[in-house]
Amino acid sequence: MNGKYSKYSLFLVIIGIFIAYMIFPPLNITFGKWSMIAIPIGFAIYITGVILGLIAFIKKEKGIIKYISLLSISLGILYVFFLIFIFSGEM
Known about the structure:
The chain is mainly α. Helix content is 67%, strand content 0%.
């Protein structure tokens, strides 16, 4: 397997964070009225990456890539607090 889950995990975490964050400054890439749907889609991709990182950890894949994707859990928690602060529970 040679770190299959680890590589996919890291890729999905990076893509998910980018998609979920891209409508906020400094990136501020918008798609018109569909821009707000990017937040849950990106966060779902991010969560999928974290789950794959957990699978890689459980299967004891070699390498440190799985640890990098699992360290991003703190970014996910901070992102949720960021959204709660920005939208005050109203999305």
